[in-house]
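User: structure tokens for this one?
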Amino acid sequence: MKARHILSKEAKADYHEQIFYACAGDVLAQTLAQIMWTMAVEYGWGKRRMRKFADAVKRTVYDTEHKNPITGRKVDPVDMIAFIRDEYGIDIVAEFPAHVETRGG
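Assistant:
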């Protein structure tokens, strides 16, 4: 007979939140790896430039999570997407649609 695990609603919510953040962390790491790989292979970026880029990304992530002391607001990733589209003509959402694939195929 299999053991049944009964979780409270709070425990289930905590568990689902842990899974969500683990997945988000995986997606972020994989996306940054793809970007940094491209910079190394296509543009010849070395250790120093990669480190500066990684530090700049950390600052940008921080800015999306904390209010800017000057403007008093967080930097919104939606605004970043619009900036890239308007300034450089690259529609990130259209050019990089979400593609979900499982390891099983």
